[in-house]
Write a structure and sequence with these properties.
The chain is mostly helical. 74% of the residues lie in helices and 0% in strands. The chain contains 21 helices and no strands. Helix 9 packs across helix 18, helix 11 packs antiparallel against helix 16 and helix 12 packs across helix 20.
Length: 501
């Protein structure tokens, strides 16, 4: 039997919730016996009682996990698709218009390869940490901390929560905009902050979900909603009668290095969501099947991305814009537009709930986790945590998303910035560094060179992409209606267009 006490450091509140879900009651004799066993083995910050208790809890959770099956690899594939396939796909036609047919198609495929590469690296790092330290990391920051040390783990935790917060705000922005458009086409006038308030009220009960396994059904609903929405957009794109748009096979003459960097950041953002991979693996019945979920989900999404990006560029040409904005500008008041907005709102609200679940767990731990091991042990044995603290955490998350959505307003710039900074760290830099450090004695020369080249390319994208995205946000801020205005920049912004010569 291996010592499981380190699990408390990054997953204690999740352990508390799941232990009580199993109605766990520890055997006192077994607890006393293991306490004596760990008298000299417990970590410095945990007493032997706590070390023994966490070992018994781990066994109870394992038994309960077998009795109550976790996610299959197919469930995990749907979960990954629901997390990743969303806001990023709407900006792909504009991204390709800034790169041209050849480079646009190539970068989308490169993005798919990077996403698979990242997922497999995370899978390898999780299994390596599990074998070496005899514990399975259940969060992304826990994985990085065990692989690269506590200081890097803290930085990773900050980046991860910033990324999740940015995604939640982006979902709030998109869902609020969709709802406002539905009201508008139905004959009602509503300021954007009213629409955001309604979305926040709708999300609060959904955010009471405490486990990703509970989100399986809504993940499938979310994937179905966005696929139907995209099909409707594509049909309308091809139906529109317009002069033959200007397109470019090679890099467009009217584009620039800054536009290209923003386009690459947008494409990379469309493949991001790796920060939740360790959580998904921890809730799978057979975590060794996780690569199947990665391959199936990424290749499915890549097929969707290429269809949307290339058909969108074919129909809109150099005037390609954010797909949702195009639909509202061109399709106008129609049943198709209303239904498409409703489906898109459903999808992004599912993404809101899934990403919010991970964000809420981290916030709950930061606010309510007890630092003293004995107090944690007593709390686990003698009481069940109430729903009120979790409800309070979800209120903070929902209100924060509502507040920042009204302050930021610019969805396109926010997506590019998240993709360039947080996404590059979580998708490329941390996984590469973790595997290079954990397996440095086992990597061949070519593997080391390949990993190093990808790491340096990630650093370059992080720097230049973040800079260009900040410039775009600054420029677009001048066109906004200001915080809590009735006009949202996502609706009124003048999208960049340029001539292909």
């Amino acid at each position: 039997m291996s010592l499981q006490a380190p699990l408390i450091q990054d997953g204690e509140e999740e352990d508390v919730v799941e232990m009580n879900a199993l109605d766990f009651q520890p055997d006192k004799q077994s607890l006393s016996s293991r306490t004596a066993t760990y008298d000299s083995a417990a970590p410095n910050n945990y007493d032997p009682y706590t070390a023994a208790l966490y070992d018994i809890v781990a066994d109870a959770k394992q038994d309960g996990h077998k009795a109550n099956e976790g996610m299959s690899w197919l469930d995990a594939s749907f979960m990954i698709t629901a997390i990743i396939l969303g806001l990023g796909v709407l900006g792909l036609p504009q991204a390709v218009s800034r790169l041209g047919w050849l480079w646009g198609t190539l970068i989308v495929c490169v993005g798919a390869s990077v996403a698979i590469y990242s997922g497999l690296l995370i899978n390898k790092a999780v299994h390596t940490v599990t074998e070496r330290f005899e514990l399975r990391p259940t969060t992304y920051s826990m994985l990085v901390e065990n692989a690269l040390g506590p200081n890097t783990g803290i930085f990773c935790h900050v980046v991860q929560q910033t990324y999740l917060g940015g995604i939640i705000i982006s979902c709030q922005l998109t869902a609020g905009y969709c709802l406002r458009q539905i009201f508008y086409y139905s004959g009602f006038e509503a300021c954007i902050y009213i629409a955001h308030a309604i979305i926040a009220a709708l999300m609060l009960p959904v955010m009471q979900i405490k486990s990703l396994r509970e989100a399986n059904i809504i993940a499938i609903i979310g994937v179905g909603a966005v696929i139907i929405c995209l099909i409707m957009f594509m049909i309308e794109l091809l139906k529109e009668s317009h002069p033959k748009p200007r397109t470019s096979t090679d890099f467009p003459k009217g584009s620039s290095a800054m536009y290209a960097a923003q386009a690459c950041s947008t494409i990379l953002f469309a493949y991001q969501g790796q920060t939740i991979f360790p959580e998904i693996m921890s809730e799978m019945t057979n975590p060794e099947d996780f690569p199947k979920a990665v391959y199936s989900s990424i290749w499915f999404m890549t097929s969707v991305y290429l269809i949307v990006a290339l058909l969108g560029y074919y129909a809109m040409g150099s005037d390609s814009t954010y797909l949702q904005t195009w639909a509202d500008d061109v399709m106008g008041n129609s049943l198709v537009t209303t239904l498409a907005n409703a489906l898109l709102a459903i999808h992004v609200m599912v993404g809101y709930a899934i990403n919010g679940n991970v964000f809420n767990k981290a916030l709950f731990k930061a606010l309510f986790a007890r630092k003293d091991g004995a107090e944690v042990a007593a709390d686990m044995v003698d009481s069940k945590p109430g729903n009120l603290p979790w409800f309070g955490v979800t209120c903070i998350t929902v209100f924060g998303a509502y507040l920042f959505a009204n302050l930021v307003g610019d969805l396109d710039g926010l997506i590019s910035l998240i993709g360039a900074f947080c996404g590059t760290c979580l998708t490329i830099l941390f996984p590469v560094a973790a595997v290079m450090h954990l397996q440095k004695k086992f990597l061949g020369p070519l593997e080391k060179v390949g990993h190093s080249i990808i790491f340096l390319a990630g650093l370059a994208l992080l720097g230049f992409g973040s800079y260009s995205s900040c410039i775009e946000i600054y420029k677009d801020a001048k066109a906004s209606g200001g915080p809590f205005s009735c006009v949202n920049i996502t609706q009124t912004r003048v999208h960049h267009s340029y001539s292909n010569g």
